[in-house]
């Protein structure tokens, strides 16, 4: 807990979502402890966070500049012991069960008994994650959308054992970040990705079958449906590799062919065309 009583939050995983969540927390006055596998990854995350914070201040309207001091609000560590003082943990690691199943027992050991764990996941079952810990009532899902600082709401997922107290704690934290909690029940893909992932996958099939180009597909959604961004720009923003991981989870959990990843999607991931973060996905970006 900070000196002013603001909860200190641990962030596990410093990729795009981890950095975005940390930025949103710092800008709302929280101290953050960020943990990842090695110092090189953390140095890259620190540089990205600093760049995003500068950009946020530059783009702020007059009178809306961030008044909260941000210097020294984030500490970085490669050891999970650094999470001992935090009041809440948000996990942001890759959507791979093999990685998540090893993490949660460790969090159980290093965090105080009253600390809640939130999985920033787009697909993984919160109930299944809760089964990895001795505190399943304190495990909840927080599906943040990218870019985190600009999104006003978060999909919050109740696991089978998630308690009302944990939900209240999660809602309070999100409210302190200026975000609305939209609460749903646990199911693979929850609500947002259960709808979004098959949509993106089908759009990729259309590209593979040369029915239309990525630009034409996206323009239909933007101009005809009024979407701010088409499905393939959305895939690039989320990360083409993340889309594949999410579809694989849905395919495995439902055992339903409608979630079978498009072969073009697999080929793009193998080729390193992961979207904005690599500079090339369905579209080209300046890195």
Automatic annotation (TrEMBL):
Family the entry assigns: Belongs to the 3-hydroxyacyl-CoA dehydrogenase family.
EC number: 1.1.1.157
A GO molecular-function descriptor: NAD+ binding
Highest classification ranks of the organism: Bacteria, Bacillati, Actinomycetota, Actinomycetes, Streptosporangiales
Site, as annotated: Important for catalytic activity: 143
Annotated metabolic or biological route of this protein: Lipid metabolism; butanoate metabolism
Keyword flag NAD: yes
Stretches assigned to the 3-hydroxyacyl-CoA dehydrogenase C-terminal domain: 189-285
Keyword set includes Hydrolase: no
Class of the enzyme per the UniProt entry, highest EC level: oxidoreductase
Binding site for NAD(+): 13-18, 36, 95, 100, 122, 146, 277
InterPro entries: 3-OHacyl-CoA_DH (IPR022694), 3-OHacyl-CoA_DH_NAD-bd (IPR006176), 3HC_DH_C (IPR006108), 6-PGluconate_DH-like_C_sf (IPR008927), 6PGD_dom2 (IPR013328), NAD(P)-bd_dom_sf (IPR036291)
Top-level taxon of origin: Bacteria
3-hydroxyacyl-CoA dehydrogenase NAD binding domain location: 9-186
Name listed for the protein in its UniProt record: 3-hydroxybutyryl-CoA dehydrogenase
UniProt entry keywords in alphabetical sequence: NAD, Oxidoreductase
Species whose genome carries this gene: Nocardiopsis mwathae
SUPFAM superfamilies given in the database record: 6-phosphogluconate dehydrogenase C-terminal domain-like, NAD(P)-binding Rossmann-fold domains
Signal peptide residues on this chain, from the entry's feature table: none
Pfam families per record: 3HCDH, 3HCDH_N
GO terms, biological process: fatty acid metabolic process
């Amino acid at each position: 807990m900070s000196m002013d009583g603001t909860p200190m939050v641990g962030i596990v995983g410093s990729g795009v979502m981890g950095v975005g969540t940390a930025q949103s927390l710092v800008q709302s006055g929280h101290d953050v402890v960020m943990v990842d596998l090695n110092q090189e990854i953390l140095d890259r995350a620190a540089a990205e966070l600093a760049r995003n914070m500068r950009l946020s201040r530059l783009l702020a309207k007059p009178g809306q500049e961030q008044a909260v001091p941000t210097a020294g609000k984030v500490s970085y560590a490669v050891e999970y012991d650094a999470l001992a003082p935090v009041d809440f943990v948000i996990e942001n690691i890759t959507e791979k069960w093999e990685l998540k199943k090893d993490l949660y027992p460790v969090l159980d050991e290093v965090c105080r008994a009253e600390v809640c764990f939130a999985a920033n996941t787009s697909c993984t079952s919160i109930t299944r994650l809760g089964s990895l810990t001795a505190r399943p009532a304190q495990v909840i899902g927080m599906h943040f959308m990218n870019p985190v600082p600009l999104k006003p709401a978060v999909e919050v997922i109740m696991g089978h054992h998630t308690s009302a107290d944990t939900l209240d704690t999660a809602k309070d934290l999100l409210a302190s970040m200026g975000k609305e909690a939209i609460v749903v029940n646990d199911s693979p893909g929850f609500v947002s990705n259960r709808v979004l992932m098959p949509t993106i996958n089908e759009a990729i099939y259309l590209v593979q079958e040369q029915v239309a180009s990525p630009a034409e597909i996206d323009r239909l959604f933007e101009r005809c449906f009024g979407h701010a961004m088409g499905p393939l720009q959305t895939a690039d923003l989320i990360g083409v590799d993340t889309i594949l991981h999410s579809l694989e989870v849905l395919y495995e959990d439902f055992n339903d062919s409608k979630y079978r990843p498009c072969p073009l999607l697999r080929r793009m991931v193998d080729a390193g065309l992961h979207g904005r973060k690599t500079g090339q996905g369905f579209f080209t970006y300046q890195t």
